[in-house]
């Protein structure tokens, strides 16, 4: 019988686990906020070309997330089921992340398409092989309902520091170079190195509990049947589907903001590229301060209600952004404070909810398969990110965006919609799903008792 994870985790384990999120989210943030701007305004790739190239990687993502999730569930290694991927993935992740920011100058549109599609697909594949097992480790480190929130709070603080580095420090590093192209290449290399080291720290310091892996099969057809069976079991988990649907909508909305914000600040607000790090520092600083408050809220409320409250605050702030005009930096600052408080809930609550849905699936089928759950969760998350990036690229192309010049009224209208109204709508659509989410603190205790009774019965036979 698998060893039962400890109810309480040491502070050292939580801090070490959080370090991994610093490196991973550093990469996520830099690409969410700056990659499209880098392609259009520095590498001078047409927006439609860049968007189409990024989409190629996500087509592969529709296969690799569930497949890699199934693979980690069946992995047997002396290093652990998930930790082994962190050990051998740290260096490739750093190299692949750096390559994304190194687009050779003067490429034709077709050559630029191939370069972006190949480098980003390789990066995305390695990122999945590292990030998915990293996330799945959290579900197995503890089964306690509230201790998961505590671990998530530590991981969220690490994610916040990573987001700060990716969105605030990267533009600063770029400006220290003699030109933007060199600056992005050097910053990308530094970030890739930092991410690799962060993942290596988790592999070194965090030990996952022993778990019995599924037996390997030499029959390829049997293996694919196992993939399909595991996928079917996961898709029958109603609380998980409701949660991942809500989180996907929220991710779509927030990525629209992230991908559009640089254009909004530079062209709609008529600021300069130095304003973006300042605004991001304000936003992420508020998110960081709010995490402590959200931890207390989640300890007293049900998780879904805390998440809904955060989304409503975000919606109010985002909708108000639509009316902001040139030079209204102080108004943007106030709205970012409101949005940041709301975003704090998204940084902590859903990641504490996923393991609870996995427990529900364990109760349903009698087996604990974290990999497939995190594979599907990661798939929806990354598809939402890609759809948002492609939507922003399409908007820029359709509204006649021209890099590095004053924009037309039509282009500014498109940028404002992508930064405010559409994201607010996406977050609003997530609220009904969260209202219907069924796992409460009491319900989770019942689930754990049912699983424990089943395991005790199996051990007694």
> Can you say what the CATH homologous superfamily is?
MFS general substrate transporter like domains
Structural class, by secondary structure, is: mainly alpha
Mean pLDDT: 84
- The name of the CATH topology is Growth Hormone, Chain: A
Whole-number tally of structural domains: 1
Radius of gyration: 22 Å
Shape: globular
Spans with pLDDT under 50 lasting ≥5 residues?
1-6, 212-220
Topology, number of strands:
0
CATH top level class name: Mainly Alpha
Q: Note the gap between the termini.
A: 12 Å
Which CATH architecture? Up-down Bundle
Succession of helices and strands = HHHHHHHHHHHHHHH
Largest sheet: none
Q: Tally the helices: what do you get?
A: 15
- Provide the β-strand percentage band: under 5%
Molecular structure report:
This protein is mainly alpha-helical. It contains 15 helices and no strands. α3 runs antiparallel to α6, α5 runs antiparallel to α9 and α10 (303-321) runs antiparallel to α11. It is globular.
Properties at a glance:
461 residues; mainly alpha; Growth Hormone, Chain: A; 15 helices; 0% strand; globular; transmembrane; MFS_trans_sf; transmembrane helix; membrane
